[in-house]
Backbone:
C-alpha cells in the first residue's frame, strides 16, 4: 500500500487542471490513464472510484482519517488538494471566496459551455443540422472569453497577484479552444490580449508544463 495520491485521468482540460495542481503543490502521486475513447470510464473498477464515470478522479489512500477517500469532480478535487496542502486557496475570507467564485464560474459556466462549443463545431455528426447549436455556443464562448478578458485586466492571475486553483481550473480550457477545437479564427482568440498574456505566463511554469502532459492520450 502507498500513501501517494492515485490520479485517474486523461490529458483533457478537466484532467489537466488536477495534474497541474498536483505538480504545483508538490504532492507525490501515481497517474493512471483512463482512455475515455475506449470507455475505460465505464469499467466496474473505475465506477467504484467515480460512480459518475468521468475523469478526473482521485483516491487519497489516507484521506479519510488514515483510510482511503475517493473524490470525483475536478473542482471538488482542487479544493480538497488546496486544503490538504494549504496552498493556492487563500486564507483571507474575501480572497478565498473570490477564488471559489471563479472556480465555480469555470465548473458551471466556462467548462460546460466551451465543451458544448467543441461538440457542435468539431465532434457532432456533420450530417445533422448543427447551425443552432453552433450559433448558440459560439456566442456563449465569446461572451465568457470577454468576461475572462475583463477580469484579467491589470492582473497577473484571476484574483489579482496570487496564483490560485482558479487559474489551474480555467487555463487548460482556454488552451483547449485552440489545441482541440481549432477555434483561433472563429472565436478571434488573438484579440484577447490579457488572456493570452496570462496563458503564456502560466505556461512558462515548469509545473504547469508538466501537469499539461500527464496521462497523454494513448495511441489509437
Ligand atoms: N464536471 C466534471 C466533468 C468531467 C468530464 O466531463 N470529463 C470528461 C472528459 S473532460 C469525461 O470523462 N468524459 C467521458 C464521458 O463523458 O463518457 C469535472 O469537472 O470533473
Residues:
Amino acid at each position: 500500500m502507498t500513501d501517494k495520491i492515485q490520479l485517474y485521468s486523461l490529458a483533457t482540460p478537466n484532467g489537466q487542471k488536477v495534474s497541474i495542481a498536483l505538480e504545483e503543490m508538490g504532492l507525490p502521486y501515481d497517474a493512471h490513464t483512463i482512455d475515455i475513447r475506449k470507455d475505460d470510464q465505464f469499467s466496474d473498477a473505475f465506477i467504484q472510484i467515480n460512480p459518475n464515470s468521468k475523469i478526473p478522479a482521485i483516491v487519497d489512500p489516507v484521506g479519510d482519517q488514515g483510510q482511503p477517500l475517493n473524490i470525483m469532480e475536478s473542482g471538488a478535487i482542487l479544493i480538497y488538494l488546496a486544503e490538504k496542502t494549504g496552498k493556492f486557496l487563500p486564507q483571507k475570507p474575501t480572497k478565498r471566496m473570490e477564488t471559489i467564485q471563479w472556480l465555480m464560474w469555470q465548473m458551471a459556466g466556462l467548462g460546460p459551455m466551451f465543451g458544448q462549443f467543441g461538440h457542435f463545431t468539431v465532434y457532432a455528426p456533420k450530417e445533422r443540422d448543427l447551425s443552432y447549436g453552433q450559433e448558440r455556443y459560439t456566442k456563449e464562448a465569446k461572451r465568457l472569453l470577454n468576461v475572462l478578458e475583463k477580469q484579467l485586466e491589470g492582473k497577473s492571475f484571476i484574483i489579482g497577484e496570487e496564483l490560485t486553483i482558479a487559474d489551474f481550473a480555467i487555463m487548460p480550457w482556454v488552451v483547449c479552444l485552440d489545441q482541440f477545437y481549432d477555434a483561433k479564427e472563429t472565436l478571434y482568440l488573438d484579440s484577447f490580449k490579457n488572456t493570452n498574456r496570462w496563458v503564456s505566463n502560466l505556461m512558462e511554469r515548469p509545473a504547469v508544463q508538466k501537469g499539461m502532459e500527464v496521462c497523454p492520450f494513448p495511441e489509437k
Remarks:
- Residues 93-123 form the longest helix (31 residues).
- The pocket of glutathione is lined by residues 12, 14, 36, 41, 53-56, 73-75, 107 (CB under 6 Å).
